[in-house]
């Protein structure tokens, strides 16, 4: 059996993986000025870097917002499009080894997909994500480079930005420890340092995403959330999510290939007859 290539086509960034005998092969990301260039650049580089011949590829599976710009088979190979939310679910289940989860896809915004056994469904989302972090950083820090913001944030002091329960109450409130966040940016001063602003912005995005995941699971008895997408690479995830886990008795899971789960899920759609794909 040959390789199935899964490609998550963004507007300027494309993620590509191969699936061979159920194994993920060499995930890769490529940036370009438009989705078509990004797709073909990623595909060519992926084959070249991994010494894969065109004849070794059985099928190409596309997903993502940029896939809408692709209307013909990639290099004449059998090509199909998979739904992005289904790809999110399949990829997250595959990488986490779990089938009863809420998938939290942290991209430009954040989408929420519930996986419950054989059922995968999009249940909503929020307009807060990497785009929010970039936009606010552009306004307040004069940069939209997420890596730069993250490095600045390491030197920041979150207590100089967020207001905690302990800042406004002499004793814990029912179900809320003194360390719980009462207000994001509620303690910010006009002369806050750039480092403090940076950590405040990251907390604002990650805290909002984490809380939305918890709220989305009410009534489902699902208490495990698989986090995927670019924001999972932020080291601050290891600081922001644990207090939410402790507060609500839930678990946030960031799998090894969290950044590439949607591309992985697109490839897996080729093998799963439950879900419709659009052949090109």
TrEMBL record:
Q: Could you give a GO molecular-function term held by this entry?
A: ATP binding
Biological process (GO) annotations?
coenzyme A biosynthetic process
Q: The organism sits in which domain of life?
A: Bacteria
**UniProt-listed PANTHER family:** 4'-PHOSPHOPANTETHEINE PHOSPHATASE, PANTOTHENATE KINASE
Q: What is its EC number?
A: 2.7.1.33
Q: Name one Pfam family in it.
A: Fumble
What is the protein name for this chain? Answer: Type II pantothenate kinase
Per its UniProt record, what Gene3D superfamilies does this chain match?
A: 3.30.420.40
Q: What does the organism's lineage look like at the top?
A: Bacteria, Pseudomonadati, Bacteroidota, Bacteroidia, Bacteroidales
Checking CDD domains in the record gives: ASKHA_NBD_PanK-II_bac (cd24085)
Keywords attached to this entry = ATP-binding, Coenzyme A biosynthesis, Kinase, Nucleotide-binding, Transferase
- Could you name the Gene Ontology cellular component terms for this entry? cytosol
């Amino acid at each position: 059996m040959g390789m199935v290539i899964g490609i998550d086509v963004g507007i300027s960034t494309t993620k590509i993986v191969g699936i061979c005998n159920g194994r993920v092969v060499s995930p890769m990301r490529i940036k370009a000025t438009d989705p078509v260039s990004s797709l073909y650049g990623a595909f060519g580089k992926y084959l070249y870097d991994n010494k894969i011949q065109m004849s070794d590829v059985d099928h190409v599976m596309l997903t993502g917002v940029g896939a809408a710009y692709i209307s013909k088979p990639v290099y004449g190979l059998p090509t199909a499009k998979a739904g992005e939310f289904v790809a999110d679910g399949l990829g997250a289940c595959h990488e986490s080894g779990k089938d009863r989860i809420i998938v939290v896809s942290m991209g430009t915004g954040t989408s929420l997909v519930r996986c419950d056994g054989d059922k995968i469904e999009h249940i909503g989302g929020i307009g807060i994500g990497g785009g929010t972090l970039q936009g606010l950083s552009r306004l307040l820090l004069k940069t939209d480079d997420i890596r730069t913001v993250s490095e600045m944030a390491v030197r920041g002091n979150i207590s100089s930005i967020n207001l905690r329960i302990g800042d406004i109450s002499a004793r814990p409130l029912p179900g809320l420890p003194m360390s719980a966040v009462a207000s994001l940016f509620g303690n910010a001063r006009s002369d806050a340092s750039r480092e403090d602003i940076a950590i405040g912005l990251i907390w604002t995005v990650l805290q909002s995403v984490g809380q939305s995941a918890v709220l989305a699971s009410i009534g489902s008895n699902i208490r495990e959330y698989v986090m995927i997408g670019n924001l999972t690479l932020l080291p601050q995830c290891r600081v922001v999510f644990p207090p939410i886990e402790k507060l609500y008795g839930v678990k946030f899971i960031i799998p090894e290939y969290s950044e590439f789960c949607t591309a992985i899920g697109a490839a897996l759609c080729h093998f799963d007859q439950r879900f419709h794909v659009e052949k090109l």
